[in-house]
């Protein structure tokens, strides 16, 4: 996988596509073709390579296919290869900042989409994201609390401090979990409206014993501070989830 990532990043046209998505996430093929001196087929080929490397993800919204940056693989490269002396440079990549101020052309367009492949079953992933003993090992030391029923509340606790609260909107174990939630203890988020997080969990179509986990954060229009926190922090959550399920160890600093 790392070989595919480095190969994808080696091409200047693909780096340009990542720059375009960095500037304005969630673009269609036509939008990405416009600033490039390249055929539509050429752009599609480069986008396919980026998606195969896990550097972008795609979502169907209505009749359009939208392309999103995926911060998780770059975060994993950082954890393995990048020294502390280059951390300031990496922050610009791992944040993969969205232009929240721009007007979206479609309603209900997802704003943050992250995907990761984990060598585990969907059932194991589901248990990890719903068991407080496990979430405390990868979700920034927060234990999740809920009775896991639709319309039931849930909370994230770091020791004696409640960090977030929300409600379960929908669930279909072990395939899907949808929650609306808000931070309660982060400075600057007091006036943010609740956002939505959707977990999509499914077996990999080609790799036996591997589960694809896709996490979508949306409804961020009135939650700019919350959006900033999750764009920086959630790739670490998913990296920690993968590390925990594949090695049994907590991610250092997670």
Automatic annotation (TrEMBL):
<keyword id="KW-0238">DNA-binding</keyword>
<dbReference type="GO" id="GO:0003677">
    <property type="term" value="F:DNA binding"/>
</dbReference>
<dbReference type="GO" id="GO:0003700">
    <property type="term" value="F:DNA-binding transcription factor activity"/>
</dbReference>
<dbReference type="Pfam" id="PF08327">
    <property type="entry name" value="AHSA1"/>
</dbReference>
<dbReference type="InterPro" id="IPR001845">
    <property type="entry name" value="HTH_ArsR_DNA-bd_dom"/>
</dbReference>
<dbReference type="Pfam" id="PF12840">
    <property type="entry name" value="HTH_20"/>
</dbReference>
<comment type="similarity">
    <text>Belongs to the AHA1 family.</text>
</comment>
<protein>
    <submittedName>
        <fullName>Metalloregulator ArsR/SmtB family transcription factor</fullName>
    </submittedName>
</protein>
<dbReference type="InterPro" id="IPR036388">
    <property type="entry name" value="WH-like_DNA-bd_sf"/>
</dbReference>
<dbReference type="InterPro" id="IPR011991">
    <property type="entry name" value="ArsR-like_HTH"/>
</dbReference>
<dbReference type="InterPro" id="IPR023393">
    <property type="entry name" value="START-like_dom_sf"/>
</dbReference>
<dbReference type="InterPro" id="IPR013538">
    <property type="entry name" value="ASHA1/2-like_C"/>
</dbReference>
<feature type="domain" description="HTH arsR-type">
    <location>
        <begin position="1"/>
        <end position="89"/>
    </location>
</feature>
<dbReference type="InterPro" id="IPR036390">
    <property type="entry name" value="WH_DNA-bd_sf"/>
</dbReference>
